[in-house]
Structure formats: C-alpha cells, structure tokens
Amino acid sequence: MGTKYITSSNNTYKVYTALLTQSGGDNVQSMYGLPLVIGTTYVINNNIGGIADFTNVGAPNNNAGTYFVATGTTPNNWGVVGDVDLGYNTGAPVVTVLENTIGDVYWVYYGLGVYTANLNGSFLVDKTISFITGNSAGDGWVFFTDYSFLPNALGLSQYDSTGSSVDNCICQIEIRVYE
C-alpha cells in the first residue's frame, strides 16, 4: 500500500487519527492460540521457524520483536505450540483507528499515566504535531500533555485534577507528519 498524503491549505501531511481507551496499569501477558482483540498492541516474542503468520491481522511482518495493532481476530497461521508466543500489555491503550496514512503505529504502556505511540524513524523532528482531546477518568478532570521521543515515538501523559499521574483514560488523538 502506497503512502497517502493529505493536502490542506497548501500543506501536505500524513495522518493518524484514533480513539484510545486505557484501563489499569502495567500488566504484561503472553498468549498462544486465542482470538486477538482488535485494537490491542501485540509483540511477536517468538516465531521459531517462521511458521506463524500474523500479516492478515495487522503485523507488517512475522519476525520476533515486531509490534502490531490487531486489525482482526484470527491470524493466517498460529504456528506450533511452544514455538510461537505473542505478548501484550493490558495497560497499553486499545485503539480504534479512524484514519492512518502514516504506517504501522503501535502503542506501549510506558509508566503510570504515560503511553507512547511508536513508529520507528517516522515522526520527523519539526514536522510532527499531535492534537489530543480527552475525557474524565472518573476521579476528576484529566489533562493530557504530549511530549516526544522523536523520531521513534510520541508520548502522551495523563494527570488528574491534583496533578498526579493516572491511568484509565478515554481520548482522541490525531498525529500529523508534514512533508
């Protein structure tokens, strides 16, 4: 699939727009053979022999160490028990992608109230901007700030009305990368 650029007011950019929900803290899990949850970020921990095939559910490849957001529930091939292991963190945001012309963006739980959108080398310095809107986490207003680990990741931090970092959010994010 080729890169799609959007042109607006003489500016050309790639865009990623998504709805994010997050609940709970850092909780790394691993799985084999169960249905994937659409919108969840997974990492291929092991794929011995390269038999498992996750490319039909969002993975850009089937290599160990590859992160992807599931776009379907059933991979082409789960491979062999013991040779394949998928990891995920229940604390990472689950996303509903509305538009994505940037590429294989995936989400990671970084710490209490801190999550990162990751796309190696594609968030260009001085050419990337994000827009974040959010809702209450149930214990007061939630304020979002974004910060960057450019060019590999963009971070999102969440605070309650007292200024303390908190998990459990619902927000919308748009990331633009200009030419």
Which structural class should the secondary elements be placed in? mainly beta
Query: What is the third-level CATH name, the topology of the largest domain?
Result: Elongation Factor Tu (Ef-tu), domain 3
User: What's the end-to-end separation, in Å?
Assistant: 18 Å
Q: DSSP strand (E) fraction?
A: over 45%
Number of strands: 13
Q: Label the overall shape.
A: globular
- Main beta sheet strand tally, sense and closure: 5 strands, antiparallel
What is the N-to-C order of secondary-structure elements (H for helix, E for strand)? EEEEEEEEEEEEE
List the total number of helices: 0
Radius of gyration: 17 Å
Mean pLDDT: 86
What CATH first level of the largest domain would be assigned?
Mainly Beta
Q: Which segments are poorly predicted (pLDDT under 50) over 5 or more consecutive residues?
A: none
Using the 3D structure, state the CATH architecture of the largest domain. Answer: Beta Barrel
Number of domains: 2
- The helix fraction, in percent, is under 10%
Oligomer status = single chain
Compact summary:
With 179 residues, the chain is an all-beta fold. It contains no helices and 13 strands.
Notes on the structure:
With 179 residues, the chain is mostly beta strands. The strands form three sheets. Strands 1, 2, 7, 10 and 13 form a five-stranded antiparallel sheet that branches. The protein has a four-stranded antiparallel sheet with strand order 3-6-4-5, with no helix packed on it. The protein starts with 5 loop residues before the first strand and ends with a strand.
